[in-house]
Amino acid sequence: MLRYFTAGESHGPELTGIVEGVPAGLHITEDDIELHLVRRQQGYGRGGRMAFEKDRAIIKSGVRFSKTTGAPIAMTMVNRAYEKDENNWPLVMAKEGSPEGIERITLPRPGHADLVGLQKYRFDDIRPVIERSSARETAMRVACCTVARQLLKSVGIEIGGHVIRIGSAGYDGWEQIRETTEPIIPKGAEEIFKKSDKSDVRCLDHNLGKQMREEIKIRRKEGSSLGGIYEIIVTGLPAGLGSYVHWDRKLDGLLAQAIMSTQAMKGVEIGLGFDSGKTHGHNVHDEIVFDGTFKRRTNRAGGLEGGMTTGMPLIIRGVMKPIPTMLKPLKTADIDTKEEQITRYERSDVCALPRAVVVAESVIAPVLANAVLEKFGGDSMDEVIERFDKTKNEGS
């Protein structure tokens, strides 16, 4: 089973990641990983930190001559804010010594993990919660998940994402989204992210992209923030990945968990999703035909039925809430004095959705890679590819 762990804080010396369960012989380099790390840093509405953080994951073990060895893969990623000694981070985040003289953070920010994290671990300073719950952690998550993404790509499975709504600006319904993406899908899902990456809000529609940028400008002037909705598409999946037998192996449940485990996500839907509840069955279910192989006339199910892949493109959408750290502050209560105050400002984006798309693309990769390994697995990539290709050629 492929799994990964991350460690580190937003303003600590570095982030660390470990990926285990990767078969031997998978081609992976630091440049492969950097491709998606660079994508994660791009997008209109970014905050100040993105101006100087140039993330690069350094592979420390588990790879030899650009191929995995079957051993755990360890990676590190330097935090440049710490290196530059900005705001005395080496003192603030010191691993030894005393907190004497270091400012305590006592104003929990609404919408963050601050207050509940402090209550859970009985801290008297919110700083540890701020540091670990920060979306900075997703940089290493993208690095770890890129390994799984490379595994999927080696068997022809591609992932791509795009933004479909920021605030009030976006597509008007399922049909309009499909009109934009359906012509691209036959070329493979990577074409979707390559095209969406040309837009600084990662929208495939030029006019809607302009509306999204204007929305961000308005909220920036107001000192507020914006969330939105994105869509992830996966192509090349064979039918039968996942399971209907056990609840905890249903692929839709595992994919939803991966999306919802990402900072600031508040909802997920697959295929027609919530719109399924607004109409009747004949407008929801996909008729089956046989044309050499079994196929669906439509893909309203989004590539999943009964917790398993159907062989159609996988379509997932996620909802990201507006970032709760805003220039125009909200009210809170001091954990010491209990008096009402306004929140302190921690540097953040106005809208992180264009960057969050890359994170969402990434976090579903280990889920799908495990489904592939469960069905076609082996100790080496040669075995995995042989078994995958054999089943594909048999049409099952």
Keyphrases for this structure?
396 residues, 17 strands, four-stranded antiparallel beta sheet, Chorismate synthase, AroC fold, globular, 12 helices, 19% strand
Short description:
The chain is α+β, with helices and mostly antiparallel strands and 396 residues long. The protein has twelve helices and 17 strands.
Outline the structure in words.
- With about 400 residues, this protein is α+β, with helices and mostly antiparallel strands.
- It has one domain: Chorismate synthase AroC (Chorismate synthase, AroC fold, 4-Layer Sandwich).
- The strands form six sheets. A five-stranded antiparallel β-sheet has the order 8-7-9-15-10. It has a four-stranded antiparallel β-sheet with strand order 1-2-6-3. A two-stranded antiparallel sheet has the order 4-5.
- Strand 13 and strand 14 form a beta hairpin.
- Helix 1 packs across helix 6 and helix 6 crosses helix 11.
- The longest helix has 24 residues.
- The model has no long low-confidence stretch (mean pLDDT about 95).
Helix and strand topology:
Blueprint: E1 3-7, E2 14-20, H1 30-40, E3 58-61, E4 63-64, E5 67-68, E6 73-78, H2 80-83, H3 89-92, H4 114-121, H5 127-133, H6 137-154, E7 158-166, E8 169-170, H7 174-181, H8 190-196, H9 206-222, E9 228-235, H10 251-260, E10 265-270, E11 288-290, E12 294-296, E13 304-305, E14 308-309, E15 314-320, E16 331-333, E17 340-342, H11 353-376, H12 381-394
Antiparallel strand pairs: 1-2, 2-6, 3-6, 4-5, 7-8, 7-9, 9-15, 10-15, 11-12, 13-14, 16-17
Helix pairs in contact: 1-6, 1-11, 6-11, 10-11, 11-12
